[in-house]
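Exercise 7. Given the components listed, write out the predicted structure of the assembled complex. Treat all entries as one system.
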Amino acid sequence: MAVYTDVDDDQLAAFLAGYDIGGLAGYRGIAEGVENSNFLLDTDRGRYILTLYEKRVKKADLPFFLGLMQHLAAKGLACPTPIARRDGSLMGELCGRPAAIVSFLQGVWPRRVALSHCAPVGEALASLHIAGDGFALRRANALGPAGWRPLYDACAARADEVEKGLAAELASELAFVEAKWPKGLPEGVIHADLFPDNVFFLGDAFSGMIDFYFACNDFLAYDLAICLNAWCFEPDGQLNATKARRLVAGYAKKRALSPAELDALPVFARGSALRFLLTRLYDWLNHPPGAFVKPKDPLEYARKLRFHRGAASLAAYGIERTP
Amino acid sequence: MAVYTDVDDDQLAAFLAGYDIGGLAGYRGIAEGVENSNFLLDTDRGRYILTLYEKRVKKADLPFFLGLMQHLAAKGLACPTPIARRDGSLMGELCGRPAAIVSFLQGVWPRRVALSHCAPVGEALASLHIAGDGFALRRANALGPAGWRPLYDACAARADEVEKGLAAELASELAFVEAKWPKGLPEGVIHADLFPDNVFFLGDAFSGMIDFYFACNDFLAYDLAICLNAWCFEPDGQLNATKARRLVAGYAKKRALSPAELDALPVFARGSALRFLLTRLYDWLNHPPGAFVKPKDPLEYARKLRFHRGAASLAAYGIERTP
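Answer.
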């Protein structure tokens, strides 16, 4: 539930004059997304998405995000394409905020993940990793391992308000992943937030991915581990090994995973679970009372973390190491 | 800001199977409307609006509202047309709520009312009144004069929390309009809530009206007085007589106003201001803390009411009584 900024129709018509996409024929605020204000925008020539970047997205990062989408779309990935203004820039200003217009993607994100979704998501993630090759800009992962200790420090004193013993568990997990974090694996552009609400399907076929506002440079296999957490657990908190196998096989169909990358998946999954646990915990402890956006349950990721801690090897994920 | 019910994609696909409008290609919750949950819905054949009726709309009233839209659209009014299901009904059930699909209208509602909007709105209102003729169902105006005293009784004890002296002012106004309410004027279907956010334009041209969920049978000129309050006051609280003249002239171009109807406009405007003051005051005093929807300022309508009380005649509105 979002739309933080209401856009005046006169201001929007003036903003549109900076583009060569026709005149204003309609716009509606979309009740989704928590970082930005998003509108479905119609002109007399087509349909677009208008985004106003609110303060949680750093303006200095926008050239990376918008340039990346442009690069990926040019390489054939089904993702929103930023529309260039008449002056060639991908971004303007509307209501005092940086604003961009991107192409509209058809499709529906799955509210319940079915087994049939997992291979296409793996394939799409590998396609993104391949398409990202050659993109000139770089962005460090602000929410990678180096960012977790500051988050932990900000939450530790109050973590036990959410669950008794959570602070000690977090300290121990953080020490583990800091010590065991892999080195020297293939890196590239990762999505870093490829949850179901960012992946569209038409029927059972992948139709597009959106929301590149956490994208950055990091280990490619770490991105797969994020998807493992986001797509392969059941509501009862158990890993569905069939889903995991399909996800990884779908990925490997497009981009081969080295034995070292496969071996790294369990620790990447453990780190990824810790990352979402920490950010959700931070939001849970710090959201203003009465805020529009209901914070997500941090304990969902505590349960996933505990699964990973108990998993002895890749076999626990249903994944075989043989090529 | 709305969308109270999140709709599962599988449930929606099953609901769509009851219609002959193609397969699901996308849907997004719209962040507007305060009574219902609204979604922009795409199928592989076209675009629609999906509405789930939340508890503020009585299910027994839906045949009136949906039948009215169907009747008006068939008469050529630019308004949403309910799409019939395969079984012929205009309404189904989704997520445990009554739900309907209507046609999509292009256009933009004006965030700031310009003089150029007023004549087209008057014309559109008259077109609605003419098109409503012959609609078989009837619905009493629950928020007409008979409904104001119960609202007053529910608010009176706390009205002075909003402004000192407001309770006494409301009592006096209520007695006035009850005594002076006109009788025997032309009646028909009225929109009863034709505020700027319910009227779409493409450029300066009227392109459609929406939100018939207050529609009912009442005096036609009372509907014009509602528009006078909603469209012809400036942000400083003063009536813009030029806007009022344009609104009434636009209306009269399509449907002649009798001298008796013109004479009734000041008391209708006074009653209409009292109606919105009372409902806003009720919502202001009774909205739950932390609710998504910020209640509208009741005092905006107290100021309009005071203008009407001070207006000696039609001339104060810039309106001439000559035909």
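Discussion: Chain B has nine helices and nine strands. Chain B touches chain A at residues 1-3, 6, 8-10, 23-32, 40, 42, 106-112, 200, 202-203, 289-290, 292 (CB under 8 Å).
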